[in-house]
Amino acid sequence: MIRLEGIGKAFHVGEHVVHALADIDEVIREGEHVSIMGPSGSGKSTLLNVIGCLTDPTSGRMSLDDRDVSGLDSDALAHIRQDLIGFVFQSYQLISRLDALGNVELPMVFAGIPRSERTERASELLRLVGLEDRGHHRPSELSGGQQQRVAIARAMVLNPRILLADEPTGNLDSDSGEQILQLLDDLNDKGLTIVVVTHDPAVARRSDRILVLRDGRIARRVSGSEATDLASLFGVTET
Ligand SMILES: Nc1ncnc2c1ncn2[C@@H]1O[C@H](COP(=O)(O)OP(=O)(O)O)[C@@H](O)[C@H]1O
Ligand SMILES: [Mg+2]
To answer: What tens digit of pLDDT does each residue of 163-218 get?
Structure first.
């Protein structure tokens, strides 16, 4: 469970203060599939990064699985991330000089898992995402959709409870995007909590709930099936 209480995030840029998030109160239950929508600059990525313990909020409290993570130092946060969180980004963020297996193994290297176990587990995860025959391909030798599947395998390799994805299909054609969304649905069916940032109603429609951000606040909460109605609120789509 993700519990956010009065979460705010201010960035200081020169002499200006940007309130990226303000007064965010929300509970995301175990096993929920939630989308975050909203115009460009409304705070979607910042909120995801706060939930993922990548960004420190400037106010409020957050707990993950009943662990209060407010005010923890960076080492403690790194442990929480390792235990609970998987992250997937629009741009995949794979290491170009490592092959698919090497990329999937990387979180296990940082977690101190022995090599033999790493290789076995990484192969298992590549099988899960349908890339068992691509283990020795580098990112440049894979399609965008395949790279994103490697990134999902990497995000899942330490058995997270929560998967966070920021525009995971933003760089993909619709067929590859559909495969990624199907994979996320399957993981959610197995109990994983998923939070996806998206501007695409077709992505948001697959979630249980949608949080609509505006100027750093939750402006609306709607069900996934209402995704299409929201599209008109945003006007032009962002990139
Ligand atoms: N590292 C940063 N430094 C300064 N301002 C930032 C930083 N990250 C985000 N912001 C600002 O915070 C607001 C929300 O940004 P972001 O969360 O990236 O929005 P979104 O993902 O919805 O497009 C924007 O006004 C953005 O310019
Ligand atoms: Mg963003």
So the answer is: 999 999 999 999 999 999 999 999 999 999 999 999 999 899 999 999 999 999 99
The answer, yes or no, to whether any atom of ligand 1 lies below 6 A from the CB of 44, is yes
Q: Ligand 2 centre and the CA of 238: distance in Å?
A: 9
| Beta carbons of 209 and 34 less than 8 angstroms apart | yes
Instruction: Confirm or reject CATH 3.40.50.300 for domain 2-95+164-234, answering yes or no.
Output: yes
DSSP secondary structure string for all residues of 29-90 = -TT-EEEEE-STTSSHHHHHHHHTTSS--SEEEEEETTEE-TT--HHHHHHHHHHHEEEEET
Q: Give the ligand with the smallest distance to the CA of 17.
A: 1
CA angle centred on 146, ends 110 and 92, rounded to 5°: 50
Q: How far is the CA of 46 from the centre of ligand 2 (A)?
A: 7
Cβ of 237 closer than 6 Å to ligand 1, yes or no, is no
| Strands 162-166 and 209-214, sheet pairing | unpaired
| Best of 12, 13, 37, 46 for a ligand 1 pocket test (most atoms within 8 Å of beta carbon) | 46
pLDDT tens for 28-67 read 999 999 999 999 999 999 999 999 999 999 999 999 998 9
Q: Please answer whether residues 36 and 196 qualify as being in contact, where contact means their C-beta atoms are separated by less than 8 angstroms.
A: yes
Which atom of ligand 1 lies at the shortest distance from residue 46's CA?
17
Instruction: Tell whether ligand 1 has an atom less than 6 A from the beta carbon of residue 88.
Output: no
Per-residue pLDDT band for 233 (boundaries 50, 70, 90) equals low
